[in-house]
Design a protein that fits this description.
Layout (H helix, E strand, L loop, with lengths): L10 H25 L13 H12 L5 H24 L4 H9 L2 H4 L1 H4 L1 H12 L2 H12 L3 H40 L10 E2 L13 E5 L5 E5 L4 E7 L1 E2 L7 E4 L3 E4 L8 E4 L3 E4 L5 E2 L1
Antiparallel strand pairs: 1-2, 2-3, 3-4, 5-6, 6-9, 7-8, 9-10
């Protein structure tokens, strides 16, 4: 039996062959990076939350069509944008509310309403019949039980969205009532504030007025019918006498000597008088 023919390769040719293979390897790696960069371009993007909402809104209607679906999504997104605004408005103090109320409506309402038509235009271009077919193919790959779970999540999210919108409407109603009370002459119900405690009890009515306190300890005045005459804004104030009250914006409370902490007085270097409208009397 003849032995296979072997060919001897010189060291120089072996070196050249190895060098060429090395360059070929580097060239192929560069080509792979250009053709297939390190990105997951092959994996399809998963649908977002509002994609699911769009699909089930369309599918839940007997005669579903995209106009109804993208409009509902726009309303929900708009409510989500306004919800933080409704919460922040509840924590504004009276001067800030008065400033917003007296500002031109074009400066306060226009920035709030502007996002809604923008959302309508955006969603009209995104949530089309083509997007519905894509979502239909996405759900077609799942078992019926999985689709039912997605549908149940849609119903739960719908209920939560409706409750959130109702809560938002209620918060804006509270803000509107507060603005109306301020515009009608500071007629906030005095029940929003705590009556000033004096001599182990609520402050007594003098000249039809008694003192009230807010959560920051500032003094204000309300009439005997429970309407706030002067919003709490003073560091301390005395009861009304002869149509005026002595108040101050500075100072500190000190204990009456020998009272064992039962009685206190307010010390200040800047006292002045106000009338029943809260205006300073010179």
């Amino acid at each position: 039996m003849k032995s296979p023919i072997t060919q001897k390769v010189s060291p120089q040719k072996s070196f050249l062959f190895g060098r060429n293979m090395f360059y070929l390897h580097l060239y192929s790696r560069k080509r792979m990076k250009k053709v297939s960069p390190h990105k997951r371009t092959g994996r399809s993007k998963l649908p977002g939350f509002f994609d699911h909402f769009f699909y089930w809104t369309w599918r839940s209607c007997r005669h579903g069509f995209p106009d109804r679906s993208f409009a509902i999504i726009s309303v929900i997104q708009f409510a989500c944008l306004l919800f933080p605004v409704a919460v922040v408005l509840q924590f504004l103090d009276t001067p800030a509310v008065r400033f917003l109320y007296e500002t031109d409506d074009r400066l306060t309402l226009f920035p709030l309403i502007l996002p809604f038509p923008v959302l309508l235009w955006r969603n009209m271009r995104i949530y089309t019949e083509e997007r519905y077919r894509m979502m239909h193919d996405f759900y077609g790959a799942f078992h019926v039980s999985v689709r039912q779970r997605y549908r149940l999540r849609f119903l739960v999210c719908t209920v939560l969205a409706v409750l959130a919108i109702l809560l938002e409407i209620w918060l804006f109603t509270l803000y509107h009532d507060r603005c109306t009370a301020i515009s009608s002459g500071n007629s906030h119900p005095a029940s929003l504030y705590v009556p000033y405690r004096y001599d182990n009890g609520n402050d007594s009515v003098q000249e039809g007025v008694y003192r009230i306190v807010d959560e920051k300890g500032r003094i204000g005045y309300a009439d005997e019918h429970g309407n706030t005459l002067i919003e709490p804004r003073f560091a301390f104030g005395f009861p009304f006498e002869n149509g005026k009250a002595k108040v101050t914006d500075t100072g500190e409370q000190k204990e009456v000597p020998g009272s064992d902490g039962e009685y206190h007085y307010w010390e200040s270097d800047d006292w002045y008088y106000i009338d029943r409208k809260g205006q300073r009397i010179e």
